Amino acid sequence: xxxxxxxxxxxxxxxxxASVTRTTPTLTLTATPPQIGIGESTRILAQAPGAASVSxxxxxxxxxxxxxxxxxxxxxIGVPLDAPLSSGVxxxxxKDAFGKTLASADLTYAVITVERPVDYLSLTEAESSVxxxxxxxxxxxxxxxxxxxxxxxxxxxxxxxxxxxxxxxTYFGQGRSINGGPVGAFHTGVxxxxxxxxxxxxxxxxxxxxxxxxxxxxxxxxVDHGAGVKTxxxxxxxxxxxxxxxxxxxxxxxxVGATGLxxxxxxxxxxxxxxxxxxxxxxxTTPFGPTA
Length: 292
Ligand SMILES: [Zn+2]
Known about the structure:
Oligomer: single chain
Bound molecules: zinc ion
């Protein structure tokens, strides 16, 4: 039996592997803001050192977060107007280049109310006649095409710009009562009133993804800004852009009009995140894009 001696435990005799530091992979998620107004947007950031990808599950939908040059991941997501007012948990998973899960994390968020008064709209018989079940079905079919695919990489880095000046006649998300009837569908965009023929400027860089006439929204241009963000410009009197055209913020894509269902000339401006319509006006003052 060997006797223990002080030399056996001397630091110089330790195996080199004993000094290797093993770090546990981590995933840290943050949402800005963490309290998301109904019909509003939030930006999710993920820190996951060593991860090749991060995916999140938000309200039952899986999203792949987008990598940033500094090694973090980001994504803008939106809460639809018909979401319940409650808190929820967003689940994130970080994986390595081989698809092996490195770490997972949960982020608690809250969906909070936003006061939006009812919009009482008076339509003439001729205007009401546009709102047929056939027109709604055709419009839904066209929207299916417009939101069938998304350009992956974000094309914008700055705040979005307002496409036209003028009074806001109907805000995003207002419930609508037509000719005193029950409150029906929520308003899917913001109405910016201005004269017929006023140039409509695109809100951010992107690619023109769709142009044409819709039964209710009228002459329309849809621009894909990448990273799930699309803007729509509706009721145009003229379209001055073509599909696949690359546009810079401020480029004119059409002219204000009153085509489709409109009681007067205005721009109906929409912004959607992965097909979920959110309040576009928030994007004029709050950054939701990449952070690095
Ligand atoms: Zn509108």
